[in-house]
Amino acid sequence: MSVPLLPRVAYFCMEYALSEEFPIYSGGLGVLAGDHVKSAADLGVPLVAIGIFWSEGYTRQRLGPTGVPVDAYPVTPREALTATGAKATVTIRGREVTLIAWRVNRHGAGELYLLEPEREEDRWLTRRLYSGGPDLRVAQEIVLGVGGVRMLRALGVAPDVYHFNEGHAVFAGLELVRERMVAGATFPAACAAVRQEIVFTTHTPVLAGNETHALPLLREQGADLGAFSDEQLEALGGAPFGMTVAGLRLSRIANGVAALHGETTRRMWKGVEGAAPITSVTNGVHSPTWQDSRVRAAYSAGPAAILAAHQEAKRELITEVRARSGVALAEERLIIGFARRAASYKRADLILRDPKMNPLLAEGRVQLVFSGKAHPNDTEGKQLVAALAAASKRFPTSVVFLEDYEMRLGRLLTRGCDVWLNNPRRPMEASGTSGMKAAMNGVLNLSVLDGWWPEGCEHGVTGWQLGDGYEGPGQDEHDLKALVAVLLGEVLPIWETDRTRWGQMMQASIAMSQWRFSSDRMVEEYYERIYRRAPLVRAAVG
Known about the structure:
19 helices, 9-stranded mixed β-sheet, 6-stranded parallel β-sheet, disordered C terminus, alpha/beta, Rossmann fold, single chain
């Protein structure tokens, strides 16, 4: 008999955050991909993931003598890797590069294969994540995309669906088109066939942040792209070649990563002829990785039990802060956390701009814990980190900056803070999954209505909103005024005078988030709404 089966998915991403012990990730994109493959493994769905083994991973970033971050690149441990014996070749800068595939054998990775050049002299390609200029980026994306498709063939994996998580994987689509052209299909027919197999997720809600490359650069870096004329490449990605544009044109459906982000993405790309329809699947996080087991156990016992479990996590954070910085935070005082990539639009220093905060910080009535990394080439981001470090000198007992943000520190912060602050310039936050992690632990979000928060916020119940979604001129001043008003008028009074209500809000936060914003829900939604297409039935004997 024939029964409907789930489609076999090949998931492509440039980075995967599985564990701080295996640092081949930079930030949110990698955490999302790591949580995606973990949930796929937990749920037992047929998903194979393709990535790159970065031999020096991403930067370890510490403050230099002037407070500006300094980058270091330790060697990535290989204990989590098992050789598969599979090989594939790509051509980079006129040289044939043989790739091998490692399978990740721990950290809940499921079926995740990481590509690496076989010869040591070719491993400059996969040395560091997001390093170098556009030429190196294109070469690395050829490894991921073209090499990834060829490696799937070598592994004997025949996907029904190819999921490109961001534009880095788009060359996989070109390789699928090339395969069909070699088999005799015309370019239009090959593109039409490939579109039925590809789905595409975009994350960057700013046009300037979406990667583009000059057509000559593509040809210089990879002869594997030489099967296409300039006219054909331009028909897919434009000139210059836009990775997001090509992803939209090569897929049958695309998605943003929150409902608001879906709306933003449709506005951004509405002029792209031949683009796939754009929907949204709101991100989620892997509960076993990010939710404290003590909080999970306390949830059914009620607010008092949740408060007690949270206090244990808070003490652990305070201990870590003291070990790292020497600062002894007060357990009975409010701790507000802000930790994410150090990019200017996230406005990490916004709360420090209002003079009304100075006496609160001087008295220790409010305690701020910051963490984050800047891209190694982002001078503005590094200056922002330096400004936060300088603030910790002005308020040495109540403002802390923790260096080298990574997954372990992320868990401590999203479990141990009392409030999680998020104040990007709307609508520039695609999702903001750190807030989901905090919410699952009963850490109350205080956030601009951006990313996932419009879907999770019930003001005064699951957390608090800042402002009203305003996006016009003077947004910084507008949001700062709202931030201080809500903090002084609502957050602090409840914290200081009504712990019973605080505990009830923590319980409401957990109830709101622990399924709805989990990666299990997210993966199930991808299978139901994105990966499936009718008819998709494979024969099964039973």
